[in-house]
Amino acid sequence: MNKQQNTFPEGFLWGGALAANQCEGAYLEGGKGLSTVDVIPSGKDRFPVMSGEMVVNTCDENHQYPSHEAIDFYHRYEEDIALFAEMGFKTLRISISWTRIFPKGDETMPNEAGLAFYDRVFDACIKYKIEPLVTIAHFDVPMHLVQTIGGWRSREMVDHYVKLSEVLFNRYKDKVKYWLTFNEINMILHLPFIGGGIRFESGENVEQIKYQAAHHQLVASAAATAAAKRINPAFQIGCMLAAGNTYANTCAPEDVFEAMCKDRENYFFIDVQSRGAYPQYALNQLKQKGIKLTMLEGDEEMLKVHTVDFISFSYYASRLTSADPAVMTQTEGNVFSSLKNPYLKASEWGWQIDPLGLRITMNALYDRYQKPLFIVENGLGAVDTPDENGFVSDDYRIAYLSEHMKAMRDAILVDGVPTLGYTSWGCIDIVSASTGEMKKRYGYIYVDKDNTGAGSLKRTPKKSFNWYKEVISSNGGIL
């Protein structure tokens, strides 16, 4: 390709991504209520709480809670958005904190202070010609709804979620065009508390509860899509998948079949949101597991009619699986366990680095759904060590992102996969969702804060800051 052919399509949305619970802080300011993420500690109890195995209802003095201050985006959003604008961002993915809008989740009227905060954030974006990309629910459920109705195990959550969505659509209909209904919707099967505010009691049918909750979220997503199109037909609504194709460990047919089954576990959510119905393989699997979903009259029609406009996804790593139970060498992969792929290097947290896997995933998703894609998370978590001036020479991050962007470019320009944009994860250092750490950094901007919560919160651009600025200004012509 020559340089002209290297550039991305005109209007491609370059930017970065954040989540309210990992950046905002101010966890009880402005009338905000307690959310599930606010009671998830860092340390050894983090995973048991996220998975729903350990029941907590409030915060205590024995744990540290990273979301309480995070990086204080709530008070520093203007400074941060100005830095994003300096890089040339065309879009910024953020999420809404549900309990800023409805502190308990079941109020009749929304909290004006919370709505006004996001008005200010969106106005700052618009000032710099940055298109907001908004996730309605990003690992966020009001704790009041967890304690009173059991989170997304309850059908009542559909109405609460749709009410939230309608308030947002009406309030920001002239400021926000792109919306995502749920972040990594498939995560409810893997981390039920963080994905849906679900905890389990001894003896419960865990799989039945998780899949019923998933059905509630799928119906809620479709109902929110219907509301969006009614309020502003120009809205573009997307689903969001934790993606990454699964490779077979060998060419043995049993391994190939196992890899197909692993991919289907995640595809089934998007099959429903994009195609409008439960696929037959999913119905068969549910029957084989003895799971009988409770569907109300009108659910199937709602799912069928109100499908999404585009497919967004996170991509950090591919996965590897085998049908042979004796093959046990595992690696880490953002909650998803995977065999260790001998052909790939890994990050400091054991995540397999596979740029070509992004191109493979993009082709697989487009072949399956024939709808535009939007890469809304991709990045490298690493330990950054500032020099005496606070500057980080993160060449390792530049190398990671550059190779993934080249793979994305090839999927778009060579393979013909229509793609709306790319928002790299954690465009400024934020609290890690998986570990609760600050030392696991993704950003182009260093935030002076450590795992204990100490630090000035000063923002300092890294080497990757200027590199990404050049990528955007050249529309991907310089990678």
TrEMBL record:
<dbReference type="InterPro" id="IPR001360">
    <property type="entry name" value="Glyco_hydro_1"/>
</dbReference>
<dbReference type="GO" id="GO:0008706">
    <property type="term" value="F:6-phospho-beta-glucosidase activity"/>
</dbReference>
<dbReference type="InterPro" id="IPR018120">
    <property type="entry name" value="Glyco_hydro_1_AS"/>
</dbReference>
<keyword id="KW-0378">Hydrolase</keyword>
<dbReference type="Pfam" id="PF00232">
    <property type="entry name" value="Glyco_hydro_1"/>
</dbReference>
<protein>
    <submittedName>
        <fullName>6-phospho-beta-glucosidase</fullName>
        <ecNumber>3.2.1.86</ecNumber>
    </submittedName>
</protein>
<comment type="similarity">
    <text>Belongs to the glycosyl hydrolase 1 family.</text>
</comment>
<feature type="active site" description="Nucleophile">
    <location>
        <position position="377"/>
    </location>
</feature>
<dbReference type="InterPro" id="IPR017853">
    <property type="entry name" value="GH"/>
</dbReference>
<dbReference type="InterPro" id="IPR033132">
    <property type="entry name" value="GH_1_N_CS"/>
</dbReference>
<keyword id="KW-0326">Glycosidase</keyword>
